[in-house]
Design goal:
The protein is mostly helical. Helix content is about 35%, strand content about 0%.
């Protein structure tokens, strides 16, 4: 599951903010 590839796919906003 490439979560880091598509952080906007299904991750908590906090995680997306960290990825961005």
């Amino acid at each position: 599951q490439p979560a880091k590839s598509c952080p906007n796919q299904r991750l908590p906003q906090s995680e997306i903010l960290l990825y961005k």
